[in-house]
Specification:
The protein has 423 residues and is mainly alpha-helical. Helices cover 68% and strands 3% of the residues. It has one domain (3-95, 127-299, 377-422).
Amino acid sequence: MKPDVKIIIGHYIILLAILVSWVNIDMVSPPMSIRILYTILFFAPLLYYSQAIPALVTVFFTIRVNSVAPFGYLPTESLLYLIFLIIAGIFTRNQNSLFKDENRIDKIWIAFILYTTVVTLINLSDKFAFFKYTLIISLLYYFVKSKFSLSLYFASFIVYSLILSIYSYFFSITFELVQYNSFFEEISRSYWTDPNYLGATIGIGTVLSFVYISRLYRPFNSIYMDILSIFTFVASLYTLLQLSSRGALISTAIACTLALFMSKVSFLKKTFVTILLLFAAFVFYKMGFFDAILMRISDDSGGSGRMVIWYTGIMNYLDQNIFAILLGGGSDWSLVLCRKGPLDWSPHNNFLQILFDYGIVGLITFLIILYRLIAYSKYKRMSFICILYTVLTCMTVCPFQFACFPLFLGFCMCLTKIDRHNS
């Protein structure tokens, strides 16, 4: 390893330690001068190490957004990251790329970005979060210029999932809330932000760490990565149980199960891992880790509540004129269609959200994009698992409302980039 590479690794390890050290749960932020200095120290070196941009942005931004502290050293405004990515793209435009013939992103994806933006402008909406996130995905796609860069991108999800799980372990008591009552005991649920979206975010690292352990996708041949993946899988699975997010846990379980049986290890090893996981699940059950999630599953208020939201949104959507049905009402119009009394409400389904916001045309275009991702990755089982987890998660929440999950979609797109190159 070159000395300058060691220095840059040490630099960001120190920055990461500083980032996670700020755990003030009150509405108190670090001094402005330190925040500015920290931001410069984070962004400036990436202009020279552009292939690390997707990985480092994923780790630092996701941890900061999901931190227990309302404020921290690093900004969370997605517009700032978008501006930086544009500047970095211009600064590094002449660098050679292993995939130089593949740098042009899918034309349908570009058309989708333009279409959703035009619909939002026509409807005079001032909400452009979706537009910013799609641009961020496109720019991150550009910076993955080698298999090593893709490997770092892959590892970043495992790293942040472990750190967020450690957060959960140390702060679970502080944020513990009594949610359910059984005949024998009260069931508590711990979280410091929306548990469904936090669970979906951590679930990405859970799936990818298991994918690595099951040898479905191993970009590294390192004992340290093996240890990191095992620790992350166990810690993040425990965190998902503590968060009691049914959608996140089910999506993770399905993706991990398919990853195991799609892996290239022998049938004997698959059987052994299956028995080991079942035994671990039994131990977790006896220790009470499943109490909250089982209580939530037995209580159908959450599921029926979603059905009411979906029904309300669909009925209001069908009551619109033909142009709104075909083209949608623009960004965040879905919140209005699913409104509960005076409150705007999320549709809790990303496919319905796209339908309400961008109409039948937008939904069909989005489904075509997902189909193309699957079609291009049919020779890559890893890509299929990632896209499957994305689809399952979109069925119960709207993860593309927040910047963390689009970072994962960017990774999925980069996997198809590799697939097309290898095909």
